[in-house]
Amino acid sequence: MSSLTRSPSSWYPGSCNITFTHSPHPLVLPSKTGPKRTLPELCQDITPPCNLNPFLFNGHLQTAWTAVKEDGPPIHYKRRVFASEDLGFKGHFAVDFVVSPPEPTAKPAADGGPEDTGLREDPVGVGHTSLPPRTTYFGDKEFDALGSNDTKPMLITLHGLSGGSHEVYLRHVLAPLVAAQHSDSKAIETGLSGGEWECIVVNSRGCAGSKITTSILYNARATWDLRQTVKWCRKRWPNRPLFGIGYSLGANILTNYVGEEGASCLLSAAVVVSNPWKLEVSSLALQRTWIGMEIYSATMGKHMRTLFQTHRDQILENKALSEERILKMKYLHEFDREVQCATWGYPTEGAYYRDASSADSVLAIRLPFFALHARDDPIAADEGVPYEEVKQNPYVVLCATSGGGHLSWFELGGGRWHAKPVSAASAVVSHRLCGLVLTVMIGCRLFERDGAGGRFWQARASKRGA
């Protein structure tokens, strides 16, 4: 059996079907105690019933609700700006490290809360256009002192299009992982967060108030900064299991990264949420409807145009770009046509979308990989989800809910199902969905190291010159 559908568990009008798609010969996880279990069995067991807000009864309403202001859990960061080590993609990018809450000052922060005590000038000298709330910089000595031999799990996060470490959907997942564990003083002593997990967010170039130093922003296949960050983390913390989680465009980038790395990937497991998978399919789906064009595509296009205006001088160092045409664009696919194609040498946005899509990367994944998708997602179209490719890879499980929209899954009361606590019968242990998936996958990087999927991707990577 390569798929299993879990019907709604109650009469509740917001209850959703949940379908798990996987290989008929799935990965078997090792166990020191008890019987061995398969990856799909594990994912099914830790996935709670999906009971959403019945008043947000379709993907459009769910997705639109994200525009309603929600403070979300406060997460504090310290930032470090890295210089790219890849000469093909020169520039700088910002990585935000989750830290314990500092003592606040009386000065109000940008979000109306108290300002953080800390360094607000970049010691690297790149600087920022603005610092997100609760974000300061590492001092040089403090940053150089990072690194240890502890075995705490570490989560590396990628945000969505034009987002950043400040995004609410992202903080909902990070908060319980880094919550202070007063019963475990060792965890507090050996990490920045004060919790059971250490977490960082790799901000796409120019996002989250970061500055760019060349004409290069990022694209849907921008795996180079993530790759450098993962290698850096492995050197600083050689014994920590490293995990990845990506949202929307960040999910596409993360999927491409683990596919490119194959069996050599330094991550132990990965989770992706609302991945657009086949970018051309999702783009054409948006263009077929008024709401797709005038609401979603126009909104995303506006955000990318704002990003261009923020970094105008640097981006226009690329003489292939036309400021006049960029400022006239309205929709996301127009931005991709005017900026991404000219920057990366694609003849059309369709060619860019096909090359940057992550659906084929599924075949090359060689680590436990959990994907979460809502079938009514109006941005990451269900018709573009690689269900058949998932069935060909024993390392991958795809969980698709019948409702939830894009990065939404709002429950009655405002909570989000994708980050819902899963409580044990004793109510002693509680984790968020993604955190629990990642936790139980620690140490599961074994098994088959090549195969048809790996050979497929290696051939494609070779052809691309990767």
Sequence-ordered SSE layout with sheet pairings:
Elements: E1 3-6, E2 18-22, E3 28-29, E4 37-38, H1 39-46, H2 59-64, E5 76-83, E6 92-99, E7 104-108, E8 114-116, E9 135-137, H3 140-144, E10 154-158, H4 168-178, H5 185-189, E11 198-202, H6 224-236, E12 242-247, H7 249-261, E13 269-273, H8 279-287, H9 290-310, H10 312-315, H11 323-328, H12 332-344, H13 349-356, E14 369-374, H14 387-391, E15 396-401, E16 421-423, E17 430-432, H15 433-440, H16 452-464
Parallel strand pairs: 5-9, 10-11, 10-12, 12-13, 13-14, 14-15
Antiparallel strand pairs: 1-2, 2-15, 3-4, 5-6, 6-11, 7-8, 16-17
Helix pairs in contact: 8-9, 9-12
Function: Displays enzymatic activity both for medium-chain fatty acid (MCFA) ethyl ester synthesis and hydrolysis (esterase activity). MCFA are toxic for yeast and this enzyme could thus be involved in their detoxification by esterification.
Domain AB hydrolase-1: 153-409
Keywords: Hydrolase, Transferase
Can you walk through the features of this model?
There is one protein chain. The protein has 466 residues and is of the alpha/beta class. The chain has a single domain (59-278, 357-464), classed as Rossmann fold (3-Layer(aba) Sandwich), CATH 3.40.50. The chain has 16 helices and 17 strands. The protein has helices spanning 39-46, 59-64, 140-144, 168-178, 185-189, 224-236, 249-261, 279-287, 290-310, 312-315, 323-328, 332-344, 349-356, 387-391, 433-440, 452-464; strands at 3-6, 18-22, 28-29, 37-38, 76-83, 92-99, 104-108, 114-116, 135-137, 154-158, 198-202, 242-247, 269-273, 369-374, 396-401, 421-423, 430-432. The chain has an eleven-stranded mixed β-sheet, sandwiched between helices. A two-stranded antiparallel sheet has the order 3-4. Strand 14 (369-374), helix 14 (387-391) and strand 15 (396-401) form a beta-alpha-beta unit. Helix 9 crosses helix 12. The protein is globular. The two termini are 36 Å apart. The model is unreliable at 420-436 and 439-466 (pLDDT under 50). Keywords: Hydrolase, Transferase. Displays enzymatic activity both for medium-chain fatty acid (MCFA) ethyl ester synthesis and hydrolysis (esterase activity). MCFA are toxic for yeast and this enzyme could thus be involved in their detoxification by esterification. It comes from Baudoinia panamericana (strain UAMH 10762). One of its GO terms (molecular function) is alcohol O-acetyltransferase activity. It catalyses: an aliphatic alcohol + acetyl-CoA = an acetyl ester + CoA.
